[in-house]
Write a structure and sequence with these properties.
Length: 317
């Protein structure tokens, strides 16, 4: 008899986190409830060797190159057996009650297509756990700090609401992302054009459009360290700039896909205006030449990626 949930893990140079991540799962009763499916995205550390020791019963796919977060998760769709799929980051550690509580909630609400939980940092601080969809305007307002001039505008990361109640939301972070199998059969998983960032934003948009609910469930907590895979990318590819390029590209693809050419044009206008605003702030606060150059580089990179993606219609990798 198939276990109710398949846990999908994409690993990229986070071999040191595999043992504590799987230990937390087992402490949560995953041996009874879950199968483990892992993709290693061409890690340069000893991740594959550690996987064999830490979780010998996992289905492991080892890629010869890094295909990105979304595509790697998509590779595991053919191996699913359970009623649910849980996408779990290697830097996310479930509580002892997380699996049982979240699966029980999904069973109680058949219209819930995707479920997320309360996320906390290592120090116990609340992390953004339940978000609003990005728009050209709220991205601009968030980046420039001008949100106070747009009363009523829903920012992507609104933190002032009650985090103690179950609520529907727009989208959930992918570090703990519990999806009903019927949803995957109906709308699929991730758009492979998103290499990194915006995969779950786009997915939740499609899930909601198909009539399912996206729900924040606060009655259990996952500790999320955050940034480990991104940090390894930066270290291996000297790419704090490259990380920004991943995010910029995904943002362009998302706005073209969901807001059309007009929304993309507005986004580009606001990107240029935002860099100008930030440059003026840097001048007024005497932050120096480096701050001004950062604004110029961001604007330049965004326009360059607009052309490289053929006006946000195809990925660069």
């Amino acid at each position: 008899m198939a276990k109710p949930v398949d846990v999908l893990v994409v690993n990229f140079n986070t071999g040191a986190l595999l043992q504590p991540m799987f230990d937390a799962l087992r402490h949560a009763g995953s041996d009874e409830l879950a199968r483990y499916l892992v993709v290693d995205n061409a890690s340069a550390d000893d991740s594959v060797k550690r996987l064999a020791q830490v979780c010998p019963d996992a289905v492991v796919l080892a890629n010869q190159q890094n295909v990105g977060f979304g595509r790697a998760n998509n590779q595991l769709l053919a191996h699913l057996q359970g009623r649910y799929a849980l996408l779990l980051n290697t830097d996310a550690f479930v509580a002892a009650d997380t699996l049982r509580r979240t699966l029980a909630y999904m069973e109680s609400d058949p219209q819930c297509g995707v479920l997320g939980v309360r996320l906390e940092g290592r120090d116990g601080d609340l992390q953004p756990s339940c978000r609003y969809f990005p728009t050209p305007l709220n991205v601009f307002a968030g980046r420039t700090g001008l949100g106070r001039f747009f009363p009523g505008l829903k920012m992507v990361d609104e933190m002032g609401w009650d985090h103690a109640s179950v609520r529907e939301c727009d989208w959930l972070p992918g570090c703990f992302y519990l999806v009903r199998r019927e949803v995957l059969d109906q709308v699929g998983l991730f758009d492979p054009r998103f290499f990194l960032y915006y995969e779950e934003v786009d997915h939740c948009k499609r899930v909601k459009a198909a009539g399912w609910k996206v729900v924040f469930y606060p009655d259990t907590t996952v500790v999320h360290i955050g940034g480990e895979s991104s940090k390894s990318v930066a270290e291996l590819e000297a790419a704090s700039r490259q990380i920004s390029a991943y995010q910029i590209e995904s943002e362009l693809l998302y706005f073209r896909k969901h807001h059309g050419i007009a929304g993309l044009a507005l986004h580009m206008l606001l990107v240029s205006l935002g860099d100008l605003v930030l440059a003026l702030k840097a001048l007024l606060k005497r932050r120096g030449r480096a701050a001004l150059l950062a604004c110029w580089r961001h604007s330049k990179a965004t326009w360059a990626l607009l052309l490289k993606t053929r006006y946000a219609t195809q990925p660069t990798r």
